Amino acid sequence: MVIQELDIKNFGKFHNRQIQLSEGLNLIYGENEAGKTTVHTFIRGMLFGMEKQRGRASASDAYRMYEPWENPVYYAGGMRFVCGGKVFRLSRSFARIGRKTELVCETDGEELSVEQGDLQMLLDGMTETVYRNTWCIGQHRSGTEESLAQALGNYMAGYEETGDTTLDVSEAVKCLKENRKDLNARKKTLKLEWEKQTQSQELRGELLEEEIRQKEKKRNTLAAEISQASAAMTTSRVTSPAADIPSDTDAESQISHRRSDREPDPSPGKRFQQRSSGASWYICLFLILAGILGVLFSPWMWARIGSVVIIAVAITLLFIRNRTIKDQQEAESKKENESLQWKKKEWACQQLLDEIHELKLKQEAFALEQEEENPTLAQIRRLDEQLAAVDLAEATIRQIAEEIHAGMGSKLERTVSMIFSQMTGRKYNRIHLDEKLKLRIHTSDQVLTPEQVSRGTMEQLYFALRMAVGQLFCPDTPMPVLLDDAFAYYDQTRLEQTLRWLSACPNQVLLFTCHKREQEILDHWGIPYHEVRLTDY
């Protein structure tokens, strides 16, 4: 790419100024405040545009610094350049209102679109960040920014793997990190949910176990009471006098017990007792009636006395009979109540056994349910697999980038070493670069950092790095080299060597200076150049 003409319509201090440039070396001379840095910034703004910054960045915003001194609403310029054998005209309006960019191929009349990337294609994918850190060197800015190392890493990885220099390795790693962050957040949420589910399940299992334990305890108590009652009844049967001479009460108790154990129909002994009880009642009633008749109708005193005695005896016997029957009934009722209570306990015991059985079935079902994979836990495991895949992808990308950097990095080291060696008169022949573009100078007996050499040598070292990286980024479309008083710390000899190297490089060189020594060296060595004097404008 070669810039032929700059048309500064309204930019900084310049208004309707045209500057003609040529291929090769262009010496742009101007005293202090003549506008060298303004032209330098104008070229960069034409190539990449200018945006007004906000916040803290606005303090050093180039947009504000180079707003036109006259009529700031009209903030525009143009450039004519050659690329790929065709002539192009680029026009820009930088003003916030009515901002516009036009790109026209004057060779064939085709109108191109900057918004759709046609200018970026002509610049061979060069970004402003890369350009500012390679071919474009401002005053006292020989060092490179950290962003260059990232851009260079992306370029190396993309170019080596796919031939596409726009592949962004750092962006891919950033996406993976964001993906990991999202996966970890989802995993944390699911883990909290799973812990709550686990606690709920543990509590449910403990409640089931406690319920079973309480029912078994209650059932064992009832079983012990039933066993004790049965043993007491068996003992009373064995030791009772009714084993030898059964009484009416014992007979009723035995009959009641048998009836409760077997069937409700009365036995023959019970029926005999009922008939005997009825006969005794009739006998007592007959005696009372006979006694009453004797008292009323007997003419003899002793007969009447005997009748009274008979009536008393009969009444006494009847009272004793009724009392005996009542005692028997109470005893029988008590036995039946005890039997009923016993049966109730047996039924309660059986019911507890059934409930315990159901609870144990629930416990077994709960245990089988726990053995099955929990859906939440399954999701956590899948997230773990995805996280492992993200880690593997990031590690693979980094490993590949390191391997690529090791391959292309050695090529870059050789280029930097060659340029630096020519500029220093073969004094330093080997330069080492790490992945962050940190420089090390290897001499015959030691390794030096840029801070350990003179300021001039350090400036040359960073200049060689910029030129080497620029050649790596744009091997097919050399970009113009913009140098704004970049050689202030160079001595005479090294400046001569640097200018001789620049004259031999394929790039168009725009050397902005306020000194005469560059021109003197170029004239001394017969190096052709195109001179532009800003003081003449």
TrEMBL record:
Residues 228-239 have a biased composition (Polar residues). Pfam families: AAA_27. This is AAA family ATPase. Residues 1-57 form the YhaN AAA domain. Gene3D superfamilies: P-loop containing nucleotide triphosphate hydrolases (3.40.50.300). The keyword Chaperone does not apply. The lineage of its organism: Bacteria, Bacillati, Bacillota, Clostridia, Lachnospirales. Residues 228-274 are annotated as: Disordered. PANTHER family: DOUBLE-STRAND BREAK REPAIR RAD50 ATPASE, PUTATIVE-RELATED (PTHR41259:SF1). The keyword Transmembrane applies. It comes from Diplocloster agilis. The chain crosses the membrane at residues 279-296, 302-320. Keywords: Membrane, Transmembrane, Transmembrane helix.
